[in-house]
Amino acid sequence: MEKNNSNGTVTFYPNNYENSEEDVHSLSTKGRLLSYNNQLKDSLHNGLKFTELLDELIETTDSQNLLRAAMELTLFQLDTAYLVFPQQYSQSDYYLIFLNRLLQLHQNEQVILQSSDRNDELYHEFPGINQNGYFTFRIDNTEEGGAYYTEKNTGEILFYLNFQRRILHFNSRAITNLLVVDYSKTYNYETVKKFEMYLMALGEYFKKDYGFDVDFNIMDPSNSTFYQFGNSGIPQAALDKLFIQAARENFMLVTGLHNEAILKLDNGVEVTIYDKSIEDSSATLNKWGLVVTDDDHKISWFDLLFQYDFIRTWYLDNLSSLEIQSNPLYF
Predict the structure, then answer these.
(1) pTM listed for this prediction
(2) Burial bucket for residue 297 (CB in 10 Å: 0-12, 13-18, 19+)
(3) 161-181 pLDDT per residue, tens
């Protein structure tokens, strides 16, 4: 038993101590102790649940279990008011770990998961690019389950990934700035192409394994891909320049039956620039863009920007009217 002294402290007495007054302080103190103990137990169970999820993320060979563990870990609140773990991985780290594990399951782990003691974080490094590529995830604080795959030195966001919405969308502006402009100054096409193939592989795995909506943007090699310009107006000035620049390289820009501009390149590759809105009688706005076609469905707009110097120069010099549009909801 316990008794409240005049100074406000609570005194504990043996159970056989006789006191005619019911000591409410004894009851409240016991309740607080029990509550505290239960909260500790709950916190410890929460920690054990976390370790089970982390085991799953690290060890599982099932792609569905892998995604489930990653989704839970990126939203998991490990600390409680009663138990704090001073050493933890961040939410963004779990996205990186997930990508590596997904690549492992497909026996295609091209990117290296590194740990930075200086920044106290995990990051991706790609062989061949090394110090010029420090890739992390930046959490989207407006959409649950979303994060941006970012090259930290430049701030370029290569793609947006959202587990809850099941989408992966690539950013044409960042891919152009980082891979086409920056990396082309230092690395040859083969090296940059390997990195692009890594990004493509990620998209294919998300699409195949999980049914994600994947927008490959300028990297999509399908002949049916329409690369829409961000500017809806007719790029007449840019087309006039392309006619001149192509002619200098012994290529002809010709006009098709529906006033589309057709550039015929080597090995049966064609670039067609036209207003897609003409295919929709209800359209009220122009929708200018381009299509790349080849016999094997292997050539994308990204490839042409590397394979033809005059195309790269023309595109970069006229981005105000030609820049390929990315999803405006995320970029």
Answers:
(1) 0.87
(2) middle
(3) 999 999 999 999 999 999 999
